[in-house]
Amino acid sequence: MIRAAVLAVLLALPAAAQTVPEPDGYRGEPYRAPVPATLQGAQVIDGARALDLHDAGQAVFVNVFPRTLRPEGLPEGTIWREPPHQTIPGAIWLWNTGYEALSPDEEARLRDGLTAAKGGDDRPLVIFCRADCWMSWNAARRAVEWGFSGIHWFPGGTDDWLAEGGASLVTADP
């Protein structure tokens, strides 16, 4: 009996160690790290639910993955091309809006982008990035705090989308 109890505790330890609590504020670096399973005020969805909502046209998808900017200090005359950003088909890309602290321009891009995405529509907003990316958690939390309704946080993002057999990703325009 004692052996069974000890074994149960030992088996439960890895699961408990992987539980990430919601922070009191926004999360900063590193942004690629395990995320909580919850987001107060938002509905958390998995890849299967995201596909169902997308295929039925029942949600607006919002990608908050950061934009890759031209590196500073490149030698004069260097040709630099921004790498393409891949996203879920039909998603709106509100780049650089998931950081811990937002500049006034980034905050306006997020607020105005979410407002335009809602557009008087009652469909939920599905906010995503990639798997284990705090940027989507931060952006979804802001949306909830700003009073947006129907916020769905998709923590698996494009990684889970593809793993669930979702349509091929498409190139997003900034």
Please tell me about this protein's structure.
The chain is an alpha/beta fold. The chain has a domain at 42-66 and 86-174: Oxidized Rhodanese, domain 1. The chain is built from five helices and seven strands. The protein has helices spanning 2-17, 47-55, 104-118, 134-145, 157-163; strands at 43-44, 60-63, 85-87, 92-93, 125-128, 151-154, 170-172. The protein has a five-stranded parallel β-sheet, sandwiched between helices. It has a two-stranded antiparallel ribbon with strand order 3-7. Helix 2 (47-55) crosses helix 5. The longest helix is centred in the N-terminal third of the chain and has 16 residues, at 2-17. It is globular and about 50 Å long. Residues 3-17 have low confidence and may be disordered.
Care to give the gist of this entry?
This protein is of the alpha/beta class. It has 5 helices and 7 strands, in the order H-E-H-E-E-E-H-E-H-E-H-E. 31% of the residues are buried.
Oligomeric state of this protein: single chain
The residue fraction in helices comes out at: 25-40%
Please report the first level of CATH classification, the CATH class of the domain at 42-66 and 86-174. Answer: Alpha Beta
**Which regions are unreliable across 5 or more consecutive residues at pLDDT < 50?**
3-17
Beta percentage is 5-15%
What's the number of extended β-strand segments? 7
Count of runs of 4 or more consecutive helical residues:
5
Major beta sheet summary: 5 strands, parallel
